[in-house]
Amino acid sequence: MNYKQQVAQALVAIVDGNLTEEEIIAKIEIPKSSEMGDYAFPAFALAKAFRKAPQMIAKDLVEQIDQSQFESVAAVGPYVNFFLNKAAFSQDIIEQVLSNGSKYGASDVGHEGNVPIDMSSPNIAKPISMGHLRSTVIGNSIANILAKINYNPIKINHLGDWGTQFGKLITAYKLWGSEAEVKADPINKLLEYYVRFHKEAEENPELDVEARAWFKKLEDGDEEAIELWTWFRAESLAAFNKIYDMLGVQFDSFKGEAFYNDKMDEVVTMLKDKNLLKESQGAEIVDLEKYDLNPALIQKTDGATLYITRDLAAAIYRKRTYNFVQSLYVVGNEQANHFKQLKAVLKEMGNDWSDDMHHIPFGLITQGGKKLSTRSGRVILLEEVLNDATDLAKKQIQDKNPDLPNAEQVAKDVGVGAVIFHDLKNERMNNFDFVLEEVVRFEGETGPYVQYSNARAQSIIRKAGDVTISESNNELSDPAAWDTIKLLGDFPKIIKRAAKEYEPSVVAKYAIHLSRAFNKYYANSKILVDDDQKLARLALVQSVSVVLTESLSLLGVNAPKEM
């Protein structure tokens, strides 16, 4: 039942045709606290038509409204405040949650439409750092949320396995590297060479010239260059997959930049055929002045291609392969201009489907307020952070529950989940400083707090023993349970909002609010006392666990039943 619609129908019957049901729905507000009502209609909207003060209109409306469907209706100043029938509402919501289980909140907004999601995309031959966390977990959560409303997300790890950095890496390896060193510690050694290259190139610019020459060899299929590149890529993927396993993230495709190396000639030809390429200082560009953008550089003077050339090839390949309804790029905000150029070039080529491509930007994770940078060597390795978080969780679990079975797995779920949740509770565009001790706390707005709230709900159900929690006869009139029940009713619209805004923080913040409301209810109510509402209270507790578990799942976080 749509309760806002119920309120609107009660009003439309008495406003003498001055407002339609849709207009009333658009004006209905939600009071700040349940004590002031569940919905409020501002009588200002009728002041002109009724030629009365809004306070008087509110009183008149209350006298005329059929209140039989509501607990009560009251005029509070210029507002008409509606209090829903708690027993009927609780029965309706709890029945929906328990009958649908993990499918509660699902809908068919997406009609199984394909949505490629370009996410994570680390550069080969560099360790996965904290800098890669955001793209990975935001992309994964958006995929989960879109799947919930029946889109078909396709998670693509568009690996940075091509480009001038490989010229730099090959140059560095040829100058200072050793096969034995790389085999012993692949990723860290390759990073060491890369960082050294940048330091040495500041003093010796000829190194950059040599690096560009090696990349051109790689593009032209030089045997030695290809052999080194293939080796670096294989070692990197093995290291990456270990971390993705820790995060519980899987991909549908690892097609990176190199995959499009033989697909760029077609793009250049298409641009030429449409007379879009212009020569500028020996390079080939597409003029984007009418979009108020700088020219898109398609080919350098030496014929080498750029990121945008490969991204054009990738976009065209994905449209042909998936016939997507949306195509998402979960990439940092600093690349915003690149994606504007990419869409503009595709639009110039006559591809109106570029309107369905969306850059999903995000802010930075900082340390001490400073940006993390691979090039300068200031790297926080993601694997180390996840291990440290797990250790910290393990210590807290040992203090709280030393006899916990399966403590190792729970510590991983809590530690890794804490890192993921902390990232996703922050709105995408916000920068945030990462302090591990604050992230892995069992109190406050943290992942462990939400997990612990769910584990508490599960513990209550275990303590209840052998009882049958049913979907029916769950009319709860207990005012202490009301905020929790209303939040459960909000879950379906929370999912739709998170999907529409590509914003996992909507779900994370909701999970925190539901946990808070439930813990307040738990603190003020004797749930297991034997009376005629005991089973209804247990049904509410079970419903909370269902929705908290599903909220965490949408974020890519596990929900242990004991902590």
TrEMBL record:
Chain positions of motif 'HIGH' region: 122-132
Catalytic activity field: tRNA(Arg) + L-arginine + ATP = L-arginyl-tRNA(Arg) + AMP + diphosphate
Domain Arginyl tRNA synthetase N-terminal: 5-84
Enzyme Commission (EC) number: 6.1.1.19
Positions of the DALR anticodon binding domain: 450-563
Subcellular location: Cytoplasm
InterPro entries assigned to the protein according to its UniProt record, in alphabetical order: Arg-tRNA-ligase, Arg-tRNA-synth_N, Arg-tRNA-synth_N_sf, ArgRS_core, DALR_anticod-bd, Rossmann-like_a/b/a_fold, tRNAsynth_Ia_anticodon-bd
Record's keyword terms, sorted: Aminoacyl-tRNA synthetase, ATP-binding, Cytoplasm, Ligase, Nucleotide-binding, Protein biosynthesis
CDD domains named in the record: Anticodon_Ia_Arg (cd07956), ArgRS_core (cd00671)
Molecular function GO terms recorded: arginine-tRNA ligase activity
Cross-referenced Pfam families: Arg_tRNA_synt_N, DALR_1, tRNA-synt_1d
Record keyword Transit peptide present: no
Top class in the EC scheme: ligase
UniProt main location, coarse: cytoplasm
Family: Belongs to the class-I aminoacyl-tRNA synthetase family.
Subunit structure: Monomer.
Protein name: Arginine--tRNA ligase
Lineage of the species this protein comes from: Bacteria, Bacillati, Bacillota, Bacilli, Lactobacillales
